[in-house]
TrEMBL record:
<comment type="function">
    <text>S-adenosyl-L-methionine-dependent methyltransferase.</text>
</comment>
<dbReference type="Pfam" id="PF13489">
    <property type="entry name" value="Methyltransf_23"/>
</dbReference>
<comment type="similarity">
    <text>Belongs to the methyltransferase superfamily. METL family.</text>
</comment>
<keyword id="KW-0808">Transferase</keyword>
<dbReference type="GO" id="GO:0032259">
    <property type="term" value="P:methylation"/>
</dbReference>
<dbReference type="GO" id="GO:0008757">
    <property type="term" value="F:S-adenosylmethionine-dependent methyltransferase activity"/>
</dbReference>
<protein>
    <recommendedName>
        <fullName>tRNA N(3)-methylcytidine methyltransferase</fullName>
        <ecNumber>2.1.1.-</ecNumber>
    </recommendedName>
</protein>
<dbReference type="InterPro" id="IPR029063">
    <property type="entry name" value="SAM-dependent_MTases_sf"/>
</dbReference>
<dbReference type="GO" id="GO:0008173">
    <property type="term" value="F:RNA methyltransferase activity"/>
</dbReference>
<keyword id="KW-0489">Methyltransferase</keyword>
<dbReference type="InterPro" id="IPR026113">
    <property type="entry name" value="METTL2/6/8-like"/>
</dbReference>
Length: 307
């Protein structure tokens, strides 16, 4: 194992010690004050704000493949041929591209509420040298926080059938049979929620997670990674940017929520998922140019739909 991998998998600092230090800092006390929700709080993702966000960050510098995916979620490497992945909130394709690159036969269905993001992801993936990327990458515009996923992912009839009798042939479905299917594509083997759920208003998160549950095959896995409580980006928000408890809105209109283990566990288990893994990922990084140490906190989760 390389030094980089060793560093990545280690916990560089203790989350409880970080929590104590931050909560004892009077200059950060406003983050923990009670908050009264405003009646004008949005009920869905703000697609226009995300369109503008991706239009501003359309240069190559903003795109970084998430190569840690296979260290954290090795099931993506060992999965069967023609496994189907739904990447929810695909952004510019930084998750979809490495998955397509890793497995020659995997199918990636990718949705986002931003048409700008989908255009950018499609452009990047089509320009890559990944084998048959054009046929294996299936983007579509969707806000999973307000709308049920389209029936072509899994129709009501196939959903009920899958609950009664799981497919004994596993992941042997091929691309040709998928194209010939008249009702749907039979559900997903994996769903990824990578820095997506935090952009959903808190009161809509349970509905959004339930939608992810609905399109998974029995035994399918959901991979979750997002902002953790006390991450340095949370502490950078000013008091007037708070729009809820642990919820913030940036100047560009996009939102961010910071998860604790308890909140994440409740969200996923309440809709029927089984917890496989759930933990804080605490990484200390150093900006050598500014001589500044940054404490990053992410939350890592793996959840399974019961058989």
């Amino acid at each position: 194992m390389s030094n980089l991998e060793t560093e990545y998998h280690s916990n560089d600092f203790d989350w409880e010690e970080l929590k104590e230090r931050i909560e004892d800092d009077p200059t950060l006390a406003y983050h923990f004050d009670p908050f009264t929700p405003q009646s004008s709080s949005p009920s869905s993702l703000d697609s226009q704000s995300w369109n503008q966000f991706h239009a501003r960050h359309s240069t190559g510098k903003f795109f970084k493949e998430r190569r840690y995916l296979f260290k954290e979620f090795p099931e993506l490497v060992s999965c069967g041929e023609y496994s189907k992945v739904l990447e929810v909130g695909c952004g510019n394709g930084s998750t979809a591209l490495p998955i397509l690159r890793c497995k020659e036969n995997i199918l990636v269905f990718a949705c986002d509420c931003s048409t700008e993001a989908l255009d950018r992801a499609t452009e990047i993936i089509y320009a890559s040298n990944v084998a048959s990327a054009r046929s294996r990458f299936r983007p579509f515009c969707w806000d999973f926080s307000t709308c049920r996923f389209p029936k072509w992912l899994i129709c009501d009839s196939c959903y009920e059938t899958s609950l009664q009798k799981p497919n004994s042939e596993g992941d042997s479905t091929d691309i040709t049979s998928l194209k010939k299917s008249e009702c749907c594509i039979g559900g997903m083997d994996f769903v990824t929620l990578i820095f997506t759920l935090s952009a959903v208003p808190l009161h809509r998160m349970s509905i959004a997670v339930a939608e992810c549950f609905s399109v998974l095959k029995p035994g399918g896995l959901l991979f979750f990674r997002d902002y953790g409580l006390y991450d340095m980006t949370m502490l950078r928000f000013d008091a007037d940017q708070r729009v809820g408890f642990r919820e913030y809105k940036r100047s560009d209109g996009t939102r961010s929520y910071f998860f604790s283990l308890d909140i994440a566990r409740e969200l996923f288990l309440s809709v029927g998922f089984i917890e496989v893994e759930l933990e804080y990922c605490c990484v200390k990084s150093v900006n050598r140019r500014k001589q500044k140490t940054m404490h990053r906190v992410w939350i890592h989760g793996k959840f399974q739909k019961p058989m």
